[in-house]
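Troubleshooting log. The previous run stalled partway through. Resubmitting the same two chains, unchanged.
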Amino acid sequence: AQSVTQLDSQVPVFEEAPVELRCNYSSSVSVYLFWYVQYPNQGLQLLLKYLSGSTLVKGINGFEAEFNKSQTSFHLRKPSVHISDTAEYFCAVSEGSGGSNYKLTFGKGTLLTVNP
Amino acid sequence: DAGVTQSPTHLIKTRGQQVTLRCSPKSGHDTVSWYQQALGQGPQFIFQYYEEEERQRGNFPDRFSGHQFPNYSSELNVNALLLGDSALYLCASSLFKWGPSSLEQYFGPGTRLTVT
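Second attempt completed without errors. Output:
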């Protein structure tokens, strides 16, 4: 069964510093990987996704992630964060089961707090 | 272009009662998925509806049921509410596709259910 581990529950950083949010997954078959952001009292917004192709994926708001199959990781990075990046970030995985039967399994989330 | 909308925003119920939550998908989408997000946790998949039928289901008891209408909107019903059902309930819509592109979901802001 697929599972996701977000290694840090909270990550505090200063504005304009780089940040990496870590995500490891467990799956025995091909996987599809996602990062979502959730601002306070809002739903989830898709940041980026890996379905196939290049292992370096670029998303919105300057975020990028790298799919590393050997390390079963999909870490999220941003070279310089802003106060407005303060939010909860969720990593999600889906196994390739064919057809249209795909469902997302989410990690527990990482709270990114950007301080001035 | 309206995104995913959910109603109500907040709801307070008593143990043992029944509740119905509503979701209207993003324009052009035909598939609706429901997730439960407990406090401090990532979203957990409840079920997915397409063509007015439940297509996939997560590990939730039969107390959780749903419906999809011909206009693609959906309802989530929970019977015999328990304190543990208190959570943010998220609706996500997508366009039915074969393959992992079906995972490109757009989330609504959620309904906060409190069971006392």
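Takeaways: The radius of gyration of chain A is 14 Å. Chain A touches chain B at residues 4, 32, 34, 36, 41-46, 49, 51-52, 90, 92, 94, 96, 99-109 (CB under 8 Å).
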